[in-house]
Fold each of these.
Amino acid sequence: MSGDIGPSAFFKAASRAFSDTIDSRRTRPELVALLCAQAFDSFAKNVAIQAAGDPALACHGECAACCRLRVVATAPEVFLLARFISVNAAAFAERGILLLKRIEAADRALGALTEEQRMAAQAACPLIERELCLAYRLRPLACRGHAAFDKASCLAAARGEAVETPISTPHLVVRSLVQNALMAALRCAGLAWGLYEINRALNVALSAPDALEQWLSGEDPLTSARIPDFDLIEAGAIFDAAGA
């Protein structure tokens, strides 16, 4: 989102770009990786523009302070992570990291919790190992868009203390624009386009070998992982009003 284009124009342009990608790979499994790469690249480039001149972030790849928050993701992000976990599960298991069991346990314990309940549970994401995210390069937009300026206050908030944590507004705004543009394009293509709680969605995707094929055919195998506080009808009306 350069200085000469506003949020509305950026949203429309990004949505069209996602639609072009979907049209080019509509029923092919590689669509997931292409859409995620496009989303992550758009986020990184436009955050760099919007956050230029802001203070340096305290966030880095070896800090898991915010990894106790509820994470929501789109279907492409879920399937991208599921593929990574499936391909690497055996290698992680050799190191004593039983990712599949971790995700199953996280789904049972956390999958149905609200955002406030998830934070109160103080349970780290199952992909965290010794303060490192095992899938950091593939982390969803929700993780990329949560960026703090002060590590001490971030850690205090993660412990449940009532402190103000300064968060980067450009990261939040660009994350929202890119995510909404992706969802609008998925909706126009007749693909399931909601937001899903990551633990439950991953467990579903990993448990059902044909989940990706179902999604590509227009079904929603991740229905049970939809977050109840995201209103599809309201969101669809907003996308229509925005011209997506």
Amino acid sequence: MKLSHRIPLTPWRARSPWAFRPRMAAPLVIGLTLFGFGEGLLVQSHWGATPWTVFAQGIAHHAHLSLGWATALISAVVLLAWWPLRERPGLGTVANLVIIAYVLDRTTYVVAVPHSSVLKAIFVVGGVLVIGVGSSLYLTTGLGPGPRDGLMTGLHRRWHVSVVYVRLSLEVTVLFIGWLLGGTVGIATAFFASTIGFSIGASLHALERIVRRRA
């Protein structure tokens, strides 16, 4: 499996986070929709979820909100933390907050929890693959980072600490808090953490090849 270690240039890449053009709509919306759907599949497996979704589950339980609303609320609070870090949002940042939360919410309502362990495993593996494809499409639009990614890069610049350690610290922190609040942590959480990088890298590589063939 070949992986891409960079975000390729695409015909739909924006020149600035707010320089939207119609050709960017499909990669942006489809990418974020797939991301939210993949998150929903992980949740519906009942074998765990991504760290931030575990956190959202805990918040949803105590605040009596749907998972989607809890996710949107967390993203909005994270955006407030951008202000002292001097991070600048883009159109993609706003779309990230709205679309992922909505699709995640609808997926958990519409997709039934499988009773078979085989189907649950398919949900977990499929969820990671779908999130990888969605991430690759969204990242190539150049319309601004998602709320969590912006927090990571902002803390990286402010503290001069590697993004690897910043992201790891954020993920571990929200996972632990989410677990304490009642979020579901399981094998899907561990599988996501250990494979999502490969899924995104493989998706970016495939997308880069497609773009080159059409050039």
Amino acid sequence: MSNYNFDAIIAYCNDKGIELKEEQLSMLSSFYEMLVEKNKVMNLTGITEWDDVVLRHYIDSISISEIMNLNDFRGKVLDLGTGAGFPGIPLKIIFPNLQITLFDSLNKRIRFLQEVIDELKLKNIETIHGRAEEFGKNSDYREQYDLVVSRAVANIATLSEYCLPFVKVGGSFISYKTDSIEEEISNSGKAVSILGGKIERVEHFTLPNTDMERSLLQIKKIKTTGKKFPRKAGLPSKEPLH
């Protein structure tokens, strides 16, 4: 672990009132090593240098702290379209109190994430391989989560159709975005409303010591999502609600 510089993430966490322990730093370095090793045989990320991973994956993942305090959060969290485990794995390491489900449509990624969970001995975290269009209509998962998060790349209307069906009424969906999203928000308001949501808050910020702009969009679930949503596979992205 001595080979890795943790100053950036320690400083970020200190600024947000999050105390990091040695064990958590060790987990972050172990996850990094597993990620880089697996990346040699399957495409998980184009970002592989330690400092870049810390900034653009780890700090970016826990930047949800800009919009809500997860230190004492006791609800169920779903990371939809988790990919290589972002934001879910860093969130679980930094906030061990969270109960997290990692969801992805590619089984190879899910198998890798299960290896990470087993290796790091993480508790109260599970993986699911499947499609949001199908699981979003399954009563075991539909409207069962207090918080759904996603760093997936899609417009807000499409992401909302995938994510909001999983959110309990009173819960939130938080979308991680890489740039300014005012126009996207104005074009998706009707879709969000149709799906039972209300745009609650937008937070713009830059990653520490960079000019990389980020946005977090919080959508509150104010009413039950209609039974016909999400629509069948492909439609939410091909024909976004508007």
